[in-house]
Amino acid sequence: MKSKRVLAIASGGGHWQQLMLMRDAFDDCDTLYLTTLPGLADQFQATPSRLIPDCNRSAKLAILRCALSLLRIILSQRPDVIISTGALPGVIALAIGKTFGARTIWVDSVANAEEMSMSGKLARRFADLWMSQWEDVAADCGAEFSGAVL
Questions:
Q1: Mean pLDDT by 10 residues, the chain (150 residues)
Q2: Rounded Cα distance, 8 and 10, in Å
Q3: 108: which of 17, 69, 82, 91 is 20 to 30 A away, CA to CA?
């Protein structure tokens, strides 16, 4: 049986750390890790990995660069599943992946204890599974809750 191809993507910092705490779930999968900070994947022995351009809502050209990079990767890898713990590059990956038939998962950062993050709110329209790590936040916005990774 062919193993699932998973694209696991997170920006640096807490987003990446939370993704790394979930990576045992991908042990039986062919997983490619994407992040925005040079050396971060090596630091966590997350291989294979690729670096993607970071972006945020105020830098339109950076969003375009990030989206084009993700499009190339998704078209070449054809992942079955895309999972992200945040931020905007993860939302873009979910949107592109959904277009090409990937199942998509968003796990909002545990740092967002009061409400779903802005990226999380955007991800809702592209996520097959949309989750918060806070039970109250999940109940308020209609996300799934299965616990926290921290």
A1: 92 94 95 97 97 95 98 98 96 98 96 92 97 95 90
A2: 7
A3: 69
